[in-house]
Amino acid sequence: MIHGDNAKILPFTKFKIIKHEKLKVKNYKGFNLINITPDLKKISQKIINRKLFSYLDYYKNLASLHGYDFILYDEIKKDKKISRNLLNFRKKNKHISYLENRCQPFAKQDDKTLILATNIDKKLIDFLLSEYQKDQIKIVLTTPRDLKLFSQRIYKKSDTNNASELLHDRDPKLSAKKVFSFKLKIFLLSLIGTLITCGYKYPAETSFCFAFFCTCVFLINSSFRVWLFVVAIYLKIKNRYKKEIPILRQKNLPTYSILVPIFKETEVLKKLIKNISALKYPKKKLDVKLIFEEDDVETIALAKKLNPPHFFEFIIVPKSYPQTKPKACNYALPFCRGEYVCIYDAEDKPETDQLLKAVAKFRSLPDDYVCLQASLNYYNQGYNYLTRLFSLEYAQWFDWFLPGLNKFNSPLPLGGTSNHFKRKKLYALYNWDSYNVTEDADLGVRIYQNRLKTTILDSTTWEEATGTKSSWIKQRTRWIKGHMITVLIHNRNPFKFLWRTGLRGFAGFHLFLTLPLINFLINPFAILQGFFLLTSPDYSSWVGFGDDLLTYFIYGILLYNLSNIFMSMVAGINRKFSKLYIFLPLVPLYWLLHSFASFVALYEVLTKPHYWAKTTHGKFIN
Length: 622
Fold this sequence. Notes:
By secondary structure, the protein is α/β, with parallel strands linked by helices. The chain has helices spanning 38-49, 55-66, 73-79, 86-91, 95-100, 122-131, 144-154, 156-170, 182-201, 203-238, 269-277, 297-306, 325-332, 354-364, 385-407, 423-428, 439-449, 469-490, 494-535, 537-542, 547-574, 587-607, and strands at 26-28, 31-33, 69-70, 103-109, 112-117, 137-141, 256-262, 286-293, 312-317, 340-343, 349-350, 369-378, 419-422, 453-463.
């Protein structure tokens, strides 16, 4: 351990801008506060940038100037100073509270608990005195890097387990670890058996009932989405003159944490650092966590080589099952310091004022609003017909459907990125479900069930759309599979789900999430049956169709496809995607691709529900 009198004092007083009284040490409840002035911080940063001394020297001298001992992680590890009492401390997950306050107990010495800390302010002292008596603790300074290394080593096993199992341990019925219960398996097998039997014994009646069912699904699904669209138009007209960002003073801005899970993303890493650094938010109040998987050696090596700015921090997730994005975010969350936290994907390019808008929005809302969802769209929309249709779909979803659904006061299935949260509220929700491949949609539903609220943030994050059919189908299969799993999980007990969400929330959830899944699965069969009805009079009379049902059936198919084309057109006009309109006639074929992905997703739900198909990015980064 390095004591204060052994450290080399840096010549701060050589700089005339620093007056002697600014180095005066203040005492608070028996502890010396580290209260470095902005001028001293600025001068220190300049000296560090000129490589006259390192961050290590800086923290050693802080300890010396304020009368504290200093220690590094390597010294703790070498001297085996780690207390055995941390085992019970770890089991109770109390270390998360210490991480929030940037400190950790690490050893016992002379009947005192030694506390690692990187800074000593009134907040830290108040927290420690709420846990210990003054004469029971001794504070030892270290660097932020060494504190993180210590925490990751000591709590590696418990943090990894929490990242994977916290939701399942606290509320197993809401976890996707086990998708199918025995009762659900029996119900699904019975349903499939009944349909096959009816189709074999009563083909005419079954065909008639299927047409009637398809007609209802198409009409209800189209009508609900058109209604959401109309509501969103009303909201846009109503709020067209509303200013989103009031003037925010930098000193009143909170620390903002950003989680960026990265796995085999070497192509986009340099651009990611540039995009995050471009955010208009005070850099000293940014807390960016680049989250890497332990076995992703190539990406970690490149990140170290790029040497990102000081507000970036690397979090290495130990290899364990499942290897998913939500598990990585769960592991990194305890290391976050921000009042708010948001998620970005590696290829994301958020609008530069997005964090400022989020802070202003949160401050203007009641306390029960815990999440904001920004809009998403694509910067490579013009690459081919697939990226163009993908962009139109996203414009519908985020610019129109979600605002309409939010006005309907229904559960809001979040997008996979640009979700902004009140960090402490996430702990009460047990974070993300590490076993759900659309953890975002699932969390949106759980927020609603806990009587908390989500709303829309008027800002856009630009992403990279997949440009090939194979990668699109892989990505869409995962999304649809996750939505299927989310529907199954939250309806294990439909009556309990109805009680927790209310009639409006229950109806909105199934109309917006469940009904489209059914729509995707029946769409190709309905089109096939409609073709036979129109071209074969014998088939129509054999199945007992009346003219009215035949008319409604055809109208249902036409309404579904024409409404999608119309809403895509309006969404494109709103986003000024003028070069995309020529591809609008391909929208029905695009939705047939969803049907193909839905059948693949259904197969994966039954065989490998936790499989995460990795989407490759970086082809369009420039």
